């Protein structure tokens, strides 16, 4: 299992979102408050952010725990961005142990994270992998369930699906084959798309200012709203749209 968070709004230091709040992602690496599967997220972490004038985000990813990387806390102290996506990782059995498997994954303007697991991976979803073109399978960022989910989402984005459609259709397709937990985060630096499927998801929206979507609140300030399970949301600083997800066919 994992924890993740995405922010859109006025530029802030990475640490303002990821390190400094009382229950920030930094603390969730060893003491998440709402995680229902797994206890410690020390198998890797990553942060992606967008710089003004550049649609392609930068990424910083490591295989170890967030708290053990002084370079990250130094980076988070000075780097500013108006669009951030970050995650801490609790690996699925059989997955790659290196930084390549740490979210966020990315291509072009996209950043992506998966909070969840595909039980029985990889055999349980071999048929799904077989539906992808060979070139896309060979270009998986890592050998892990999250990288496969990202490949399925990216395939739909390349085919012209909207962010919400790409996430919703991928969740339905995967959940029809395996009892997976599929909380997904996707951003292009302007919109956050997310799904709640099997674990906690929250958002906090300050009208006209900023929006945060996260596995769990990073502080106890008012304004956090729990996203119902089986829901896809689209979040921007000007508002949040939520749509129930269809149950997959039996």
From TrEMBL:
<protein>
    <recommendedName>
        <fullName>Gamma-glutamyl-hercynylcysteine sulfoxide hydrolase</fullName>
        <ecNumber>3.5.1.118</ecNumber>
    </recommendedName>
</protein>
<keyword id="KW-0378">Hydrolase</keyword>
<comment type="pathway">
    <text>Amino-acid biosynthesis; ergothioneine biosynthesis.</text>
</comment>
<dbReference type="InterPro" id="IPR029055">
    <property type="entry name" value="Ntn_hydrolases_N"/>
</dbReference>
<dbReference type="InterPro" id="IPR052373">
    <property type="entry name" value="Gamma-glu_amide_hydrolase"/>
</dbReference>
<dbReference type="InterPro" id="IPR032889">
    <property type="entry name" value="EgtC_Actinobacteria"/>
</dbReference>
<keyword id="KW-0315">Glutamine amidotransferase</keyword>
<comment type="function">
    <text>Catalyzes the hydrolysis of the gamma-glutamyl amide bond of hercynyl-gamma-L-glutamyl-L-cysteine sulfoxide to produce hercynylcysteine sulfoxide, a step in the biosynthesis pathway of ergothioneine.</text>
</comment>
<dbReference type="InterPro" id="IPR017808">
    <property type="entry name" value="EgtC"/>
</dbReference>
<dbReference type="Pfam" id="PF13230">
    <property type="entry name" value="GATase_4"/>
</dbReference>
<dbReference type="InterPro" id="IPR026869">
    <property type="entry name" value="EgtC-like"/>
</dbReference>
């Amino acid at each position: 299992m994992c924890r993740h968070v995405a922010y859109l709004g006025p530029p802030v230091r990475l640490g303002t979102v990821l390190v400094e709040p009382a229950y920030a992602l930094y603390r969730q690496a060893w003491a998440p408050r709402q995680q229902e599967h797994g206890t410690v997220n020390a198998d890797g972490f990553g942060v992606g952010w967008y710089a003004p004038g550049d649609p392609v985000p930068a990424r910083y990813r490591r295989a170890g725990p967030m708290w053990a990387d002084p370079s990250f806390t130094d980076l988070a102290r000075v780097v500013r961005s108006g669009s951030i996506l970050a995650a801490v990782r609790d690996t699925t059995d059989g997955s790659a142990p290196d930084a390549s498997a740490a979210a966020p994954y990315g291509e072009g303007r996209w950043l992506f994270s998966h909070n969840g697991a595909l039980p029985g991976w990889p055999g349980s979803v071999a048929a799904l992998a077989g539906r992808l073109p060979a070139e896309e399978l060979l270009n998986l960022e890592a050998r892990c369930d999250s990288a496969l989910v990202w490949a399925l989402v990216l395939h739909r984005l390349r085919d012209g699906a909207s962010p919400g459609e790409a996430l919703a259709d991928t969740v339905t397709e995967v959940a029809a084959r395996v009892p997976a937990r599929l909380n997904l985060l996707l951003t292009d630096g302007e919109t956050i798309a997310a799904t709640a499927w099997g674990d906690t998801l929250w958002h906090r929206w300050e009208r006209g200012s900023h929006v945060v979507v996260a596995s769990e609140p990073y502080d106890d300030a008012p304004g956090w709203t729990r996203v119902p399970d089986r829901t896809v949301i689209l979040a921007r600083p000007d508002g949040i749209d939520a749509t129930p997800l269809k149950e997959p066919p039996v």
